[in-house]
Fold this protein.
Amino acid sequence: MPSERLRTLPILGDRIGEIEQICAKYPERRSAILPVLWIAQKQEGWISEDAMKEVAEVVGVTAAEVYEVVSFYTMFHQHPVGRHHIALCKTLSCAVCGAHEVSAYIREKYGFDAGKSISRDGRFSIEEVECIGACTEAPAMLVGEKLHGDLTPKSIDDVLGKLD
Ligand code: FES
């Protein structure tokens, strides 16, 4: 039974019932840190310092330990992102097959100012990441949790053009 204190947490409070069910599957609460972080990210779209403190309290670790996990995995966002987040692979196979050109195309076509990771309209954010396991379909990107490979300007527009 979660404490009343956990139910009042601003970010995770209304998901505490679900979080308790997840924690109950593990021998130690701290082992639930990854799924609880996913919930935190779903709540706000990214993981703020406040969210890290709440996750720490919920699973019984320090905020520094939560930060270590968040900073290790690129799928956790430490800054606000657009409505649709693009993780574009920059590792060797994708680099050789045109990842740089893909990045330039997306940034130009979808309205990113130089050096910015969020488009002017807030619709997209982009991040260059290490291999996403789709090397045979290079160049590849994730949009949210969905993988898209063999990217061309047309296939990029087919994917991104449909998103609001
Ligand atoms: S190198 Fe890009 S998916 Fe593996």
Observations:
- Strands lie at 84-89, 124-129, 141-143, 146-148.
